[in-house]
Design a protein that fits this description.
Strand 1 and strand 2 form a beta hairpin. The protein starts with a helix and ends with a helix. Strands 1-2 form a two-stranded antiparallel ribbon. It is elongated. The protein has two domains: 89 residues, Arc Repressor Mutant, subunit A, CATH 1.10.10; 41 residues, no CATH class. It is built from eight helices and two strands. It is mainly alpha-helical.
Length: 139
């Protein structure tokens, strides 16, 4: 529960991609490409951020003093960043429990409810296929 509260605080304070970058750099130095790959991995392939998302965010975090860019092109937490991330467990694919994944799915369903009905209609077969797979899991 405590770790969830910390995650919630960090997301609110830093925003999604900013917080993910800090959480991943909390594990050790990484390049921008490695950060994008890790985010894709921990989101189970749902999201691979573009360089247009990651690199401007990295530079903002540098300007704010949370990370530094090393001579080898990788990034790491600064002392300020380390202080900010105290009390966090490493963020890995294993951090996501079944309950967490179900919450994510529920969130995506709410998102799809807000999408233009024409867009949903175009993808009705795929949605039905996914619904069948979920139904089979529940049996």
């Amino acid at each position: 529960m405590w770790n969830f509260m910390l995650y919630k605080y960090k997301i609110k304070k830093f925003g999604g991609s900013r917080w993910l970058i800090l959480a991943l750099l909390n594990q050790g130095e990484k390049s921008g490409a490695e950060i994008m790959k890790e985010i894709e991995k921990i989101s189970f392939g749902f999201w691979r951020p573009s360089p247009g998302t990651i690199y401007p965010t990295l530079y903002k975090l540098i300007k704010e003093g949370y990370i530094v860019r090393l001579e080898n092109g990788k990034y790491m937490l600064s002392e300020k960043g380390k202080e900010e991330m105290k009390g966090f467990e490493p963020l890995t694919a294993e951090s996501f429990t079944v309950d967490h994944v179900l919450d994510l799915l529920e969130g995506y369903i709410y998102y799809l409810k807000d999408v233009d009905k024409k867009e949903i209609e175009k993808r009705k077969d795929k949605i039905k296929e996914i619904a069948k797979s979920l139904e089979a899991l529940a049996e």
